[in-house]
């Protein structure tokens, strides 16, 4: 009470300096206009439509959003306002199961394994805006309400142009897919083409807002991008943003996506020679690459098949369709008749499917299934498989579990190194690292054939 009184005294003192009475002042707001159009906007949002208020600062956009939220509060719609968070690391901030967490992070443009252990307080403004959107996605996907509405003030207002545009496009794609209404406000007129709202409300200083119907037409998909042949240097310039370290073997082709307006690299696709052995090929091409002698199989694979081994996008352009566009461009002009790809995040970020490739979910290999069963019997929770220290401790405590892990590692060339180091402690540590990286991995494989 005392603070409020002192605040009023300060206002009165400032008024006296200006030679005006407090009663002469009227806040620069447009509550009348907001209350008139709020019911219509709320109705559009409840029908899973997207509404965007665009105008300069001080033109009444925030007032309009408050009126819309008040209107929605009288209905049974589930309303969620986007707020940035600086608590927890990314998965912890979403409070959801791993499948939902990874799916929403990918939909918001945070499909980056390197960020999973990053505290939200250390994220950039763009990453924090994406995290706030992902939190809202989780909250609304959990809701059982018939009408769900997302309210966002200052959409992309403090972000660089590529990030703001990709965030708007990601929001459009998710809202249309999940049948969620959106009411957003921004000072950026360029976001109209990327959010593709059904209704645009243009607010003006000292004038009534104007409502325009846009019908939700999306702009030409990524018209600001140019897909063209690239180089190994293009890949290396973005390699640090890929979750898998190191260069792919035997690179035979590179495509790059360039932002036409800014003439900067937005994404890269790398094509490599395929491995000679792969379990998924019999699902995609039954008996095609498994019959005959080893030399004949190798000749057929090398002649007919190439692998999309890397697709990486600049973080500012994520969730804007860059990866899908790169894959589509390659499939229109492939190096061979058949193309394959393997994606660890395929279930959460299915851009290969959106580009036209066919997905194949391969069952766990027998050796992986056996080790996972042993870990379950040892009481190892699912999340501990990725904890090398905790897993090492369990392998040291349970000799039978260590024997199972050694037998598992010996059955594969990729994990055999886990038992070659000298010294028992080093062996246990290496085994734990191999298990963490391989045993729970459930990649999605993709195939495509030129007709």
Quick gist of this model?
The protein has helices at residues 2-18, 31-46, 61-73, 90-94, 98-107, 125-142, 161-178, 192-195, 232-238, 281-284, 294-304, 322-332, 351-354, 366-377, 388-397, 399-410, 424-438; strands at residues 50-54, 78-81, 148-152, 181-186, 199-204, 207-213, 225-229, 251-259, 264-272, 305-313, 338-343, 358-360, 444-449. By secondary structure, the protein is an alpha/beta fold. Strands 7-8-9-10-11-13-12 form a seven-stranded mixed sheet, with helices on both faces.
Can you put this structure into words, describing what you see?
This protein is α/β, with parallel strands linked by helices. 41% of the residues lie in helices and 18% in strands. It has 17 helices and 13 strands. The strands form 2 sheets. It has a 7-stranded mixed sheet with strand order 7-8-9-10-11-13-12, sandwiched between helices. Strands 2-3-4-1-5-6 form a 6-stranded mixed sheet, sandwiched between helices. α12 links the parallel β10 and β11. The longest helix has 18 residues. The chain is globular. The mean pLDDT is 85.
Percent strand equals 15-25%
What low-confidence regions span 5 or more consecutive residues with pLDDT below 50? Answer: none
> Can you give the helix content as a percent range?
40-55%
Q: What class do helices, strands and sheet pairing give? A: alpha/beta
Largest sheet: 7 strands, mixed
Oligomeric state of shown chains: single chain
Task: Please tell me how large the radius of gyration is.
Answer: 27 Å
Continuous helix count = 17
Rounded mean pLDDT score: 85
- End-to-end separation in angstroms reads 76 Å
What is the number of strand segments?
Answer: 13
Please list the strands of the largest sheet in the order they lie side by side.
7-8-9-10-11-13-12
Order of helices and strands: HHEHEHHHEHEHEEEHEEHHEHEHEHHHHE
